[in-house]
Amino acid sequence: MKTYMNRIDREHHLMMLVTWDYLGNWLEKTSCLTTEERKRIKTAATHLLHASDSIVGRLEVDYAKKLMRDAKNTEVRIVDRVNEKLGRTEGGRYIDIEDLYDLASFSLKECVGCNKTNHKECERYKLFMKLNIPVAQEQTDGCPYEN
Questions:
Q1: Distances (CA, A) of 132 to 58, 110, 111, 125, 129
Q2: Which of these, 28, 128, 131, 130, lies nearest to 144 by C-alpha position?
Q3: pLDDT of residue 15
Q4: Which of 49, 73, 60, 45 has its CA nearest to residue 2?
Q5: CA distances (Å), 116 to each of 21, 73, 105, 120, in order?
Q6: CA distance linking residue 112 with residue 97, whole number of Å
Q7: Would the CA dihedral through 78, 82, 85, 86 be positive or negative?
Q8: Is 78 helix (H, G, I), strand (E, B) or coil?
């Protein structure tokens, strides 16, 4: 038996621990389960923990430390595939990148003849940089978006 895990195996082990934690938290908060359902879910969580303990017990000591670090930096999300296919996101609707560039180009009409001394303080410049809007001019001392 191997005494190490590759990245994919670690991710699966991590998911096992995240699921164990999720089930434990859910059992504490929910009141919609029957006694039998609660018992079965608790048993499943216990089995996940025992399997994880067995894995950690036979691997190198550093593995458990790495697993704990990874667990602290892991977030699991449930994605609604229907909304994903429709192009919806948590923050709103999907915008085609070309439409975003067209909107930015239209917005740049306000920049014609701009006299700002520090373009990096400009709200439009900051927004365009945040959205990764391509610059109009690569080599310039002033604002790269100025037309």
A1: 47, 19, 18, 10, 5
A2: 128
A3: 93
A4: 60
A5: 53, 42, 19, 9
A6: 23
A7: negative
A8: coil
Question: pLDDT band for position 31 (50/70/90)?
Answer: very high
Calculate the average pLDDT of the chain.
84
Query: Of 130, 131, 136, 97, nearest to 114 (Cα)?
Result: 136
The whole-number pLDDT of residue 44 equals 97
Give the whole-angstrom CA distance, residue 78 versus residue 16: 16
d(CA 30, CA 23): 10
Beta partners for 92?
Answer: 89
What are the sequence ranges of the domains in the chain?
Answer: 7-72, 93-147
Length of the chain: 147
Given this model, what pLDDT does residue 110 score?
A: 83
